[in-house]
Amino acid sequence: MAGRPQPEQHAPPVQRLRVKYAKRGRARFTSSRDFGRAFERALRRAEVPMAYTSGFSPHPRISYANSVPTGAASEAEYLEIGLAEVCEPALVRSALGAALPAGLDVVEVVVAPPVALADVLTGARWRIDLNGVSSAVLEGAVARFLTAGSVLVERMTKNGLREFDARTDVVSLSVEGNSLLLVIAHSTPLVRPDDVLSALVRLAPELVSSQPPVFTRLTQGTLDHSSGTITEPA
After folding, report:
1. 76-to-20, 120, 156, 189, 233 alpha-carbon distances in Å
2. CATH number for the domain formed by residue range(s) 15-114
3. CA pair distance 76, 22, nearest whole angstrom
4. What is the residue extent of each domain of the chain?
5. Helix, strand, or coil here: 210?
6. Among candidates 199, 197, 167, which has minimal Cα distance to 184?
7. Which helix (H) or strand (E) holds 197?
8. In sequence order, what DSSP letters do the residues of 166-188 get, joined into one string?
9. Cβ distance 73 to 124 under 8 Å?
């Protein structure tokens, strides 16, 4: 009896590139799964020579990290791709930029350093735009939040409804006009800006607005806990 056929074995990548991209405008409603499909299509259209995993169902070598929730915009999303040939990063950026849908914009492509993305993406800076809410109401809610020892919130996860402290990982929170500026440390479970907003509403119900909030990740990278600053991942 013939043995079971062995899966195809692919060579490891000869180059890894780190891609920084943005989700702008209506593209912020693109889910992580839909973005993955769009990005793989763009790789094919751009004729990027991808390396593939081995096995019975090979996949292009793409590593995603800390994608924003559906509906949130971002100026600082990151992923890494493994290539079967060495390519000039600037050419890959240009080709991908032309192949991706409007609003999914490639900001930068560089040779990836030998460090995992998760190890250098330890914090993010967000803006939450709250039209229809006065700055005085925002200031009061922020003051209550910052003086609270903990603020428990609930969020539905893939493992069911989960309760956790939204205060613990907030490094800084301030008001700028009708917006909140927020720095969050990445931990497990990951505190999201909508969790922080839920905590603020719990402390200050008058914060509820008839207009939906807009969440934008401004920067993402390595967090300095002492100063609250975030540097680009290296």
Report:
1. 6, 13, 25, 20, 10
2. 3.30.70.580
3. 6
4. 15-114, 121-231
5. coil
6. 167
7. helix 193-203
8. SSTTEEEEEEETTEEEEEEE--S
9. no
How many C-beta neighbours within 10 Å does residue 26 have? Answer: 11
SS3 15: strand
Task: In whole angstroms, give the CA distance from residue 200 to residue 146.
Answer: 10
Cβ-proximal residues to 185 (8 Å cutoff; 6+ apart), any chain: 122, 123, 169, 170, 171, 223, 225
- Asked if 45 contacts 39 with a C-beta cutoff of 8 angstroms, the reply is no
What is the CATH code of the structural domain delimited by 121-231? 3.30.70
Q: Tens-of-pLDDT digits for all 234 residues of the chain?
A: 455 666 667 788 999 999 999 999 999 999 999 999 999 999 999 999 999 998 778 889 999 998 999 999 999 999 999 999 999 999 999 999 999 999 999 999 999 999 999 899 999 999 999 988 889 999 999 999 999 989 999 888 778 888 989 999 999 999 999 999 999 999 988 899 999 999 999 999 999 887 899 999 999 999 998 899 999 887
Q: Would 15-114 and 121-231 be classified into the same CATH topology? A: yes
What pLDDT, on a 0 to 100 scale, did the predictor assign at position 58?
87
Q: Are 221 and 230 in contact (CB under 8 A)?
A: yes
**Where do the DSSP E strands lie in 52-122?**
62-65, 73-83, 104-111
CA distance 19 to 147: 38
- How many CB atoms sit inside 10 A of residue 121's CB? 19
Which residues, 6 or more positions from 20, have their beta carbon under 8 angstroms from its beta carbon?
A: 76, 77, 78, 106, 107, 108, 109
Give the global pTM: 0.90
